[in-house]
Every structure is written in structure tokens, then in C-alpha cells.
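<purpose> Linking amino acid order to shape
<body> The protein record starts here
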Amino acid sequence: KMAAGEAAGRYRSTMSKSKDPSGLLISVIRTLSTSDDVEDRETEKGRLEEAYEKCDRDLDELIVQHYTELTTAIRTYQSITERITNSRNKIKQVKENLLSCKMLLHCKRDELRKLWIEGIEHKHVLNLLDEIENIKQVPQKLEQCMASKHYLNATDMLVSAVDSLEGPLLQVEGLSDLRLELHSKKMNMHLVLIDELHRHLYIKSTNRVGQRNKEKGRISSLAKDASSVPLMDVTNLSTPRKFLETSQFSTPGSSSMRETNLLEMKEDMELDPEENSTVFMGILIKGLAKLKKIPETVKAIQDRLEQELKQIVKRSTTQVADNGYQRGENLSQDNQPR
């Protein structure tokens, strides 16, 4: 009995001190193992059963008292559990979708790169087709420019067309005839420009002097003072050299200023290109430079210099003789044989 009393005391102290069920179980096992009397064991068993029944009653009472809160807590817990489960499933689905999107984006990127390259190729092809279409019209436009003597525009057009035909469009077989035709025209273009240059250097300039001389002679004959007018007055003639040495340039004789002036020369398609002979000759020189035929031009001028000067002397002599004969006729009509 004393042992049972001690065991019960230890049981109560253990229950009060410890809330751990494993500690309680160990205490009961120790009490039963130290007790040798069957009656003590039965007593201990009865007390345990009584304690468990009391716990069940207390638990039932607490459940009855807190049924609403307990139900709400259980439902809330279930709801939270379901939400967590759904969230996990959704996150898993989102991860799968992200991986799928990543793969699709890689595919789209390759597709977009391919389309971008194809777009560049098509744009290049369209540019080539536009260039071919423009080049096909070059012979007709070239003929019109040559007929109107807009040689600089014609030279630019011809050089650009030949460069394209022998460059980016070299592999286009359908343009072989046009390529040969324009190349041949480019090879012979400088001959036309050189002839025009000589015509303005030696023929048109002297014709202008003769024309001015005739006008002065007419004025002088009206004034009855023909002897005071010289036959040839070239002091005011605007020659290319005088054109370069006028006040257009801050430093006369400066090669850089002359070069700049030549580079800045432009052709007005609306005006007569031969109206200003000096500008026209500058344009001819610019066209020859674009054709890279300046050495040939210098050689042609040197070769034809003597012949052209002789022709100037011949024409001037004929002009002076004709002018003198006309004056003699006028004087004879005025009864002044002298």
C-alpha cells in the first residue's frame, strides 16, 4: 500500500509538471515495474482508466462549449490547406508554362531572325530592280542630254550606269547588250567633249570678237570715223585664264580656289548650256575629269593647237579682207575713192 501511495504521488507530480505524454508513459511503466503486488497494479490501472475517462469527459465538455469555434477553425484549416494545394499546383503549372514559353521564344527568335534576313534580301532585290529599271532608260535620257548639250548631266548618268553594270549588276545576263553599248559610249564620250571644247576655245571665242568688231564698225561708220576703230579688239574678251584670275577668287592663281570653283560648277537644265562660254568649258573639263580623260584632253589640245591657230589666222584674214572690201564699197558709194 505504501508503494502504491508513493506511485500515485509520483504520477500526480509527473502529470502536474509535465505535459509530455511520453514522460507520463515512462512514469507509469516505472511504477508498474517497481510494484510486486498484483493488487497495486490493478489499483494503478483503475486510476489510469479513471484519469482517461475524466480526460474524455473534459474533452467532450470543451468540444460542446467551443463547437462553433472548432468547426470554424477546422473549416478554415481545410480552406487554407486547399488554397495552399491549389497554389502549389498553379505554381507548378506556371513553371511549366514558363519553360514552354522560353522554348517558343527561342523558336520565334530564330524565325524572326530568318524573316529579318529575308526582308533585307528582298529590299536589296527591290533596289536592284529599281536600278535596272533606271538603267534601261539611260540610253534614251543620254540621247536627249547630248542633243541639248547638257554634257555634265549626261556624263554623270553614263559613268554611274557603267559603274553599276560592271559592279553590282555584273551577274545580270539580261543587261549584257546594254552593258556593251554604254561602255562603248563611255569610251567615246570624251571625243565629243574635246570637240566641243575646241569649238569654244578656237571658233566661238573668235566669232564673238568678230561680231563685236562688226558692231563697232557699224557704229563708227555711222559716226563717219571708221579709221579710229581697230579691226580686232581682244582686250575685253573673257578668256578662261582671265575668268580664273578675276575677283571671284581671293587669291588669284590659287590652285585650290580654282579646283573648288570647278567642283562647285553645276549645270542648269533649264538654261542654254552655251550661253556662258567660259562656264560651258568649265563644265566640259569637269565632265572629262569624271571620265578620267584629262591626259587625253591635254594631248589632243597640244596636237591640234597649231592647226587650230592656223585656222584662226585664216578666218581672221578672210574676215579682215571682207571687212575692208565692204568699207571700200561704202566709200565708193559716197564718192570717196580714196
